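Hello Y.,

Per our agreement to keep a running log of every chain we model this quarter, I'm adding this entry. I've kept the format consistent with earlier entries: sequence first, then predicted structure.
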Amino acid sequence: MAKGDAAAEGMDRRGRNRALLARQGLLQRWTVTAAEAIERLVGMQSQSPTAAYVGLWSRLERFELDDLAQLIVDRKVVRIALMRSTIHLVTARDCRALRPVLQALQERLLMTGTPYGKQLAGLDLEAVVAAGRRLLVDQPRTVEEMGRLLQKKWPDRDAKSLSYAMRNLAPLVQVPPRGLWGIGGLPLCTTAEAWLRQPLGTDTAPEPMLLRYLAAFGPASVQDMQTWSGLTRLQPVVDALRPKLVSFRDEDGRELFDLPDAPRPGPDVPAPPRFLPEYDNLLLSHAEREHVIAERHKPLVYGNFMPPVLLVDGLVRGRWKATQARGAAVLRIEMFETLSKREAGTVTEEGERLLKFVAEGAKTREVRIEAVA
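Predicted structure for the entry above:
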């Protein structure tokens, strides 16, 4: 490893994989609380409202469904648009700290990354947000309902564009029962300030957030940091942080940055099988992802919907789905390539534990390992 301008040591994909797994709680399950894990991970991708339950189960030594549900009910964790302007599950503290850093991103993506910017051109957006906030004083509402109500004040504007203006420009959190295991419901929103009964922070500097990213996802390149956060032009920011960092070179010569004391256990450390939920951040937080999934397998995972996946020896080797009907729970695992007999045994054991977690009341449970169709 190297500091400053010294020549950087090389790091191959397998070594980088093991470093990432260690920081994600996927080499050895953590013994921390659910809230502490969510903060270690700098939030969890959460457009699928119950995915985080499986994500935490795979990372924690002890985790029950109610551990997360109670945090949501007690307003200690919230679901809000943050990195990449996608919904993330974060602690209340991180909601207040991260949203100001990422607010400019929400505004930029609204105006240039969606078709709604043209509809909103020339509109007093501060007035729209103020009116939208007033709509939330009495009760939480869906984003769509806010759009329809705002259209009464601005009838010449598209309701969906007005709804997205509120979604991006105001810090809206989705309130329970959304996000509670086994309970449906529309995504009702209110402002983060109203729900948490505290104002957001005022610091917009990205440096603390990027250091936390490295702690959870490093070693990583500047492009990786931009892919994870959605922010751009981070090279000067990272350059200013160099005295606090060490650097490596990956197999393609890209410079990777890391925290000096972060775990890098080495490429030979065994990696147990782990089941990850749909849209897990492990697969979305780097520009180059060959250290977690082979190039030939990407079309089986990345698309309009990202399925739950199975890690074997640290890499995505399959996808899975758990179903339950008439008291019978089935975990169907579609493998991208053949497992060895030993691997099949450890995958089945972990799959049985997963089924016990997601289908606790089932009378029968079955793990099926198949080739991908």
